[in-house]
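agent> Task received from the user: take the single chain below, predict its 3D structure, and emit structure tokens. No templates, no multimer pairing.
agent> Plan: (1) validate residues, (2) run structure prediction, (3) serialize to tokens, (4) report one or two observations.
agent> Step 1 OK, no nonstandard residues flagged.
tool_call: predict_structure(input=
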Amino acid sequence: MKGLTAPRWFAGRARLPRGEGPWPWLVAGSVALSLLMLLALVLLLAVRGLGHFWPSPVALVSLEDGSQLAGVKVREERRFDGAGSEWLLRTANRDLEGGIWQWVAVDAIESVSHPQDLVVMSRTRWGDFIGRLVALEDASGNQQEQAAWNAFEARLAEIQALRDERDRLRGDVVLPLVRRLERGLDSEARERLAAANARIRGLQRQMIGETLILESADGQRLAQPIEQVLRAWRPNAMSLPDKLGAWSRGVWRFLSEGPRAANTGGGVWPAIFGTVLMVLLMSVLVTPFGVLAGIYLNEVAHQGRLTRVVRIAVRNLAGVPSIVYGVFGLGVFVHGIGGTLDTWFFSDQLPSPTFGTGGLLWASLTLALLTLPVVIVATEEGLARVPEHQREGALALGATRLEMLARVVLPMTVPAMLTGVILAVARAAGEVAPLMLVGVAKLAPQVPVDGDFPFLHLDRKFMHLGYHIFDVAFHGGDVQAAMPLVYATALLLVLVILVLNLTAIFLRHHLKMRHVALPRH
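)
tool_result: status=success, residues=521
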């Protein structure tokens, strides 16, 4: 049939790859756009959050009416009427001026300078102070004006050492002894507690004595007790290495210290620890139940109508709003199971609840229930991808069904299981709504782990980075002042989730490589 044979030139053209149109470019563009948006988000959080710890220069603004202001320029905006622009200055000095922000019209500014003697102080009361250090006054009333800054720095370092010793005693000695006394009468603990409290009072007395004479830019003077000063710096006189050192110390304090001033100051270490601990405990709880449920649905249960209904129900549970799980956890875990445990085992402490209130255990169980459908679905998908001849070969070699599941099927499904755990971690670490009902606290300076038996206290409340962001952003008295901390905490939450996910991804890759079939030669 030579007449039906295609010409040689046509056959050659038929072997050319067909054009796929614009779809590969659209897919690649979507992936690139997603990555750019993610990088832009992280960059925004990093600039706004980490920039908060940089010692910004303090400007001395002289106005046309002869008044002066000292503050840090935050931003410049156009006026609503369009007639010029305004500067937003963080002037601090709440105790002198009643607020820490002030808008200044650019047209009203006569001159701007940056004197090196301007001081920024972080205080335990009234927030920051911006102005000048006039003198250092001792307990007898003698004032030192010359070299007052050097003397103040030396004395502040001594006070900081005393403050660290006091905080160490309170956390490592006093709190464990108080909990020990709460469990029963202990004369030795009482004596040690009295000695520790006496030592703390002695440290407090050593911090008291000197007074700082401060002056604001407009000439108002203030007597500031030195024991209320946390830190002080002169940003206009700092070199670049000095600013880098101050920035690194500020970031470290943010990561290692507890919160203060109603969460608007200090650090977020308890929130970091609480978030990681809750996610790890949730993973330990959800993984076995999710894996066993997936194995039962795919390998054990009869594949009929009821099994299909259960699968549909599991997939629908993944779309239930998280606040519904929080209500379920509050009603079943906290009030139901927790109240019953208090009645059975902690009746002598009622009406003060032990497990009948929100805590780490109930929060972890609630989030485990929330992420359970994700692990079940991922496990089923992994089991479905195992070739059927792997099962048949194991059974043909004499293995029982249990041995076939444990030694052949499950090792090949571990990467899929870990994929489900990764998705569960990513969702649980960022959840806030259910935690508000089952255990998260606005302020919990002590982490749920200490040296007292049983070491991990599942009944205690804990802090969470997501709830900390919500509380600082919406429940603070000054949203403008809280926004840098919101950005910094949000960046930290993203990094914590990234580290947890990368850990699970590396573990999944390691297990996957162990079960990859070697090529035949």
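agent> Step 4: summary for the user.
Confidence is low (pLDDT under 50) at residues 9-14, 517-521.
agent> Done.
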